[in-house]
């Protein structure tokens, strides 16, 4: 689907039939004056005011703006207001689902629009930090040549996540989290406004306070929860949104996976458990949910690296290199193609033979150390390279294993207290059978008692 057509159609829908859109979209400010909070960006003469054409007698505004701030604080809104105020086309892309191809299509469309009917374009790119370096590079010509006004949004520090040639050509604006009073003002406006709930319900103070707690400064989350709760109250024939109704509905409103909420960890946990359980299809399902929710591919790759050692270990020593390679690849590729790499690694891990022997081995060894089972290092193993070491007997009696035909000397390595303690208990799954044989053989040659 050509992205600018899609967005144009969506915009048109929104304008013609505002009642069909979610409350948060219907209540989206149309002018800078309707924007709450962010006063530091909205002072008369500020770069943002200049961008909407206010007092625009000076030099042309920047062709690229980066908006950095927490979710639901007005980044999309500001981009939308800028495009409306300057009568430009508004095209929206998300770095989660779009790649270089989509960026090029928008840029080509923008050049056609300006050449054909003199209409300029605002390209709003959400979550720019999810673009790889190469994907961000593809934006540079359009910014340099002013083919579009780029407004890029990010929830992460742009100094780490945006390439420096783009950063240096952009105006960086930082959005502050909305205060509870800001969000309260938006909720009250939404309750009465013609575009909003038109006084269909009332919101008692305790429900409002709880709503503000749920929202945590995110206006979209507040309006979405209000809409769900108001709908539930009306379904019950109630004109007041009680605390009970709100509590019943927030769970349902949160069914849609929330990248920043608890589901983030639940779904990640289900992915790892499905891999551990060797259910490749369930693992792919949870992976798809994470991708679709806009999860950071680097977060997913980190979890896969942990799983490779925690649940597969030496049963397939290739699992860790595959997971590490996947982590490196996704950092370079970015979405959408990173999904292929993550799928590749997830399938390999899910179908690999399983062993938690590496996990339990270090767990048991740490447990002993933490309980104080340590004891002095045997003197024949101590450092013998300093003056006086000989006098202390350090290093004396040490047998150099390579001097022996088997390459293993029957001498004690562990402290006395732990000399017969074993930690590694290999499985016989996959390649670990080899390690099981090896540990048997080496413990025998070391003269260790079986324990
Ligand atoms: N500062 C604000 N003033 C008024 N309304 C706001 C503000 N911030 C957010 N909203 C409301 O919340 C909705 C979502 O906000 P918006 O899409 O602008 O957030 P965002 O910062 O782009 O979030 P995200 O990072 O999650 O995409 C808007 O449609 C609007 O109704």
TrEMBL record:
Belongs to the AAA ATPase family. RarA/MGS1/WRNIP1 subfamily. Residues 1-24 are annotated as: Disordered. This is Replication-associated recombination protein A. Residues 61-182 form the AAA+ ATPase domain. Coiled coil: none annotated. The keyword Nucleus does not apply. It comes from Streptomyces pactum. The lineage of its organism: Bacteria, Bacillati, Actinomycetota, Actinomycetes, Kitasatosporales. Pfam families: AAA (PF00004), AAA_assoc_2 (PF16193), MgsA_C (PF12002). GO terms for molecular function: ATP binding; ATP hydrolysis activity; DNA binding; enzyme activator activity; single-stranded DNA helicase activity. GO terms for biological process: DNA synthesis involved in DNA repair; DNA-templated DNA replication. Keywords: ATP-binding, Nucleotide-binding. It comes from the Bacteria.
